[in-house]
Design goal:
515 residues; alpha+beta; Ubiquitin-like (UB roll); Creatine Kinase, Chain A, domain 2; 2 domains; ten-stranded mixed sheet; six-stranded mixed sheet; 18 helices; 16 strands
Length: 515
């Protein structure tokens, strides 16, 4: 198969240039690219504990220097990248490029870029690094089950820009799948998607989301008086490690493109009361020998899928420690906002913690229903059944969250109790019409402090098999406790209306770019 497809502009430029898939990239390929494209530097990227990409720019003045960088990586100060985790007296670490992640930097035309992995002074994967924790969790899952866990993320964000004249005004909270000229950010979104698709090969689609704010009220200078449009980029399902890297890169690209246009982009969980927050839903699927096994031959959810659902229900409370890490997260997880508050799963229901969406599992070639003359003998890409975890938001620590989800999946296959939980937590109707039954399901945490407490109580779920180090669980617990939000809802409810709105906005706007 040729990877040099000039007719497809979203083909990864490196794959097209080398005429090979990314998994086959090697050192000689990169030396050829550097020389033929006259590149000046190699840039290393790596995900820190704050969930953001860091970078190191390494100048290249000779073939020998480039080869040394590609073979040995570079040395960094781990105590600065992992503050509170790595002691300053033992802080040196290595960052080493993973070749399959190579890409041409769209914001620096003279650079060849890589995602790197952290190694200790002894040359082993640093056990506390988020990407290495996910690596261990994924290896555990594959070794225990002989299956592959795929994930895709729905990356929601607000694009914030100066207000424009009142032309084709978009009403508040009316942006879902809206088009131009009511949505003004289409060209910016297109550029974001272009770069993410080329670099990761993982974009499924993009669209405007429900949240829209004409004039933001805030003390924050980045927000005050600005316009906000909520957008979403949904990714394609990939193995969990690839998904984590793609999503972190996606956030990096979104911010850089926004900055290029003089705009701001924030993934914060909530931007305005009464306006949809930035969820970060994850769809999960199980594969065996490359085939989706979420439904059996009769078309019903398979035992594999039920075990996955049971595992997610068991871990759901404590997963918020990685998926909902700011006080404002719990201004989003409230009733009647299409955000979950109780632990149950359901078919199609968007208020459930876990939703089983449509999957084309019992239909095929739908175009023939609308276009009777169409040729149906064409092979098509069939989307497999997924289950959607709807609790995480834009404050999620992506690698740690996916590591926790992967541990939940592994638990589901190791413990037969998972099948009982899947049965127990299934809601087969509009659960909100039966208040007693709704309230019989366990609640999700209502604050970061509660989430921290649950993480410590259930730390064995993550530390088993030495996947999550104790130091990481302790660090995340302290991070959550620092939000000091345990009585937030009650304190806000006791305030007069105007004071309440003011305090809510302070909470929502204080961490625009933490992760």
């Amino acid at each position: 198969m040729s990877f040099n497809n000039p007719g497809y502009s979203l083909t990864n430029p490196l794959c097209a240039f080398l005429d090979k898939p990314a998994d086959d990239f090697n050192r000689a390929d990169f030396l050829e690219i550097i020389e033929r494209k006259n590149l000046e530097r190699i840039t290393f990227h790596y995900t820190a504990l704050d969930g953001r990409l860091k970078e190191l720019k390494l100048s290249v003045s000779s073939r020998e220097q480039a080869e040394s960088i590609l073979v040995e990586g570079e040395r960094i100060d781990g105590s600065s990248i992992f503050k509170g985790m790595v002691d300053t007296s033992l802080s040196d670490m290595y960052v080493v490029p993973e070749y399959r992640t190579a890409f041409l930097n769209p914001f620096d035309k003279s650079s060849l870029d890589f995602i790197c992995r952290y190694l200790t002074k002894d040359g082993i994967r640093a056990p506390f690094a988020p990407d290495n924790i996910l690596y261990k969790a994924d290896m555990l899952f594959q070794n225990k089950t002989n299956l592959v866990l795929n994930a895709l993320g729905e990356l929601e964000f607000f694009l914030i820009s100066p207000r424009e004249p009142e032309i084709f005004h978009l009403e508040r909270q009316q942006g879902y799948h809206e088009s131009a000229p009511f949505i003004k950010s289409g060209n910016i979104l297109n550029e974001m998607v272009h770069h993410i698709a080329q670099i990761t090969g993982s974009v499924k689609y993009s669209h405007s989301e429900g949240g829209s704010i004409d004039c933001i009220e805030s003390d924050h200078l980045e927000l005050r008086g600005k316009n906000a449009e909520q957008l979403e980029i949904e990714f394609l399902p990939k193995p969990v490690q690839e998904t984590a890297d793609a999503l972190v890169l996606g956030r990096w690209i979104i911010r850089n493109v926004a900055y290029k246009y003089g705009c701001d982009a924030t993934f914060c969980p909530k931007l305005e009361k009464g306006v949809a927050g930035n969820g970060f839903h994850f769809h999960l699927e199980l594969l065996k020998d490359g085939k989706n096994i979420m439904r059996d031959r009769e078309g019903v959810l398979s035992e594999h899928a039920l075990r996955l659902l049971g595992g997610l229900c068991e871990y759901a409370e404590s997963l918020t420690a990685f998926g909902n890490t700011q006080a404002s997260s719990y201004l989003r997880l409230v009733p009647n906002q299409e955000a979950p508050t109780r632990i149950f799963w359901s078919d199609l229901n968007r208020t459930a913690l876990i939703r089983v969406p449509l999957s084309w599992s019992n239909v095929s070639f739908l175009a023939k229903k609308i276009n009777p003359r169409v040729d149906s003998d064409v092979p098509v890409l069939q989307y497999g059944q997924t289950v959607e975890l709807r609790s995480p938001d834009g404050s999620a620590l992506i690698h740690l969250l996916l590591a926790g989800i992967t541990m939940a999946a592994a638990w589901g296959f190791q413990e037969d109790q998972s099948l009982e939980l899947a049965k127990k937590y299934y809601a087969n109707k509009d659960i909100h019409s039966d208040l007693n039954r709704f309230e019989s399901y366990p609640s999700l945490p209502t604050s970061c402090v509660e989430s921290s407490r649950l993480l410590l109580e259930k730390r064995n779920l993550y530390e088993r098999e030495e996947i999550f180090p104790q130091s990481v669980i302790d660090f995340i617990s302290k991070l959550l406790l620092a939000e000091n939000d345990e009585m937030m809802a009650q304190k806000l409810a006791d305030l007069p209306l105007n004071d309440r709105l003011y305090e809510i906005r302070k909470i929502m706007h204080r961490n625009l770019h933490r992760h």
